[in-house]
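Q: what does this look like with 3-hydroxybutanoyl-coenzyme A bound?
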Amino acid sequence: MSVVSYQLEGDIGVIRLNNPPVNALSHALRSGIQDAVTQAQDDASLALVLMCEGRTFIAGADISEFGKPPMLPSLPELLIVLEASKKPIIAAIHGTALGGGLETALACHYRCALPSAQVGLPEVKLGLLPGAGGTQRVPRLTGVKAALDLMTTGAPIAAAQALNIGLIDKVVEGDLLSAALDFANEVIEQGAELKRVRDLEVDKTATSAEYFAELFTDYRKTLSKRFRGQEAPHRIVECIEAALNTPFDEGLKVERRLFVECMQSPQSWALQHMFFAQRMSSKVKGLPKDTQLKDIKRVGIIGGGLMGGGIAMNFVNVGISVTLLEISQEALQRGKDLIAKNYAMTVSKGKLTVELATQRQDMITGTTDYHDLADMDLVIEAVFENLDIKKQVFAKLDNVCKQGAILASNTSYQDVNLIAQSTSRPQDVIGLHFFSPANVMKLLEIVRGDETSNEVVATSMAIAKSIKKVPALSRVCYGFIGNRMLRHYAREAQLCLLEGSTPQDIDAVMQNFGMAMGPLAVGDLAGIDIGYKAREGLTDEQKGDVRTYCIADALYEMGRLGQKTGAGYYQYDPDTRQRSVDPVVLEVIEAQAKKMGVERKVISDKTILERLTFALINEGFKILEEGIAQRPSDIDVVYAFGYGFPAYRGGPMFYADTIGLEKIYHTVCEFADTYGEEFWQPAALLKQLVEEGKTLTQWANS
Ligand code: 3HC
């Protein structure tokens, strides 16, 4: 079936696009539209309607064509043809008109949309800028400020708001085709005027050159903070400045030059990789297509602490009621108060109404009786991180829960197979590892036990989608994908401290690299007691080399547990939580170094960066060779969505390819010589790929 069809409906020519799933502007679509518009110039039509079949209007350029040899017509060329049409073209929008999709609509002469439609320019999320005239046309319709907001956030807006700021001409109700035909007839009756956005001037009334100069300066400052290290938002500002200060065609030239620059940047390649990685991570290798999904209508959560409460919020936020179990009424009340506090915060930020917040909390029923979980479709255990306690909880669940219920553990480390064995139904047991704060963090690590059924895995993937999480599948090992890798990263942070760095040296290096926070600041946020208590349950062998935790233990023993006690690796202002350097910490570090017989020396920023990131990467390779992760891009998803790794570097495994595996392998070997083989053994897969001269991406695609 052709992706573009053209048909006369009375006096109106209707161009229909049909390129599922999202009508991305592939080459076939672009040439089909060009042919249809060309054909329409000489037929009996008086106006044209451009609309899409399926679930959405055009959702943008076809990202899978990026980086491949260009095929004509390019999108900018096609849009010249559209805009130059001698018959008015009306874009009729439903679903999401995004990126090149919205730009296509802006090159039409009129735009109408259903109330449910959304429009946006999300290119910035791909490290790009709108490259088909969007940066020049949008400010001509909306003014500079709204254009800056739309393009630098990349967030879509609803049809009503699009109408409000002048991006579309009309919101239409009912059947889109009939409404668009009516609109086209109105346009014809009023003389079929060709309203070309390029002919408009950017609105400068009541504003001065100084106003705009200040506006652009303010935006640049804000963007530098909000998108630390990223280039595309700044290039967008440049384009909008060009729209304000130069004629349309000159502005287009600036846009083209900067678009090509962004397209050729490693940041954009990384973000494009993340786009597909995020979508790929929900696909489970070897899962039969006809795998049945379980219906999840009622969810039980055990434990009303920070984690359990956050998990509960995810479900009620999407209309799934929750039964929250705690050991006592007091504990239950504490849990409910915590949830209420969280909702109050969301309300105070204006992100939720008081009514909705109350409605959601009303969907949480508290209990102290396991029998109240009997009818649950899914139960998630979020109790203390201790294997024996978890096993006891699962044995109880096995007794009370209905057959077929999914029994999930929110464990971050424990062996899901052992937990499953404490029930008579290991096929129904799975790990659902949320990240704190669970109502905010996007990642959901789904841990498949040896006996977990396909049905339970597939349903867990569907649950992730329904509660708007990004899932990544892991097999069982200590710490799964994320925390297992993190141990090696944290180990190097501790060793660098002992051998010569300060917390602020290490955190600055990692933050400049793009991590949301440095590892020591994270330690203070999470609490130094967490690691200490986790180590308490381990044998000396499991704890590993004492040099990797002696500083943390010393701080713990001084009662410096991190932000919650006002001091940890840093000290914290009790009111603002602003952190500052505490000279006592250096004394602690130096004392520990002396005790361990380590002579402290200056460690360069480059070495700090390589030790921390290569430790992550090397372990990532081991996770792949053992089959713990399905694919490298799933590891990238885990790190970008769960650990604050900069998405514009593509996650640790994509980053490894950009550095070059050979460089990483040789550095890891050098580190083994310098810092000891007990810490550094190159992964067999890393060595193998270097010998074969392959990249990790090539390996994953083979
Ligand atoms: N190009 C290629 N494939 C795309 C695509 C695009 N622009 N947008 C979505 N897809 C694919 C996805 O990879 C996915 O494929 P899969 O089924 O094989 O995994 C499929 O379409 C469905 O996508 P989602 O799973 O994301 O579906 P949702 O319904 O959850 O979301 C959406 C739909 C809101 C349209 C979302 O897909 C989206 O945000 N897409 C990207 C939009 C975008 O970034 N557009 C700008 C592109 S850059 C551009 O236009 C440059 C221009 O300025 C020159």
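Residues 3 and 18 are 5 Å apart (CA to CA). The two ends are 31 Å apart (CA to CA).
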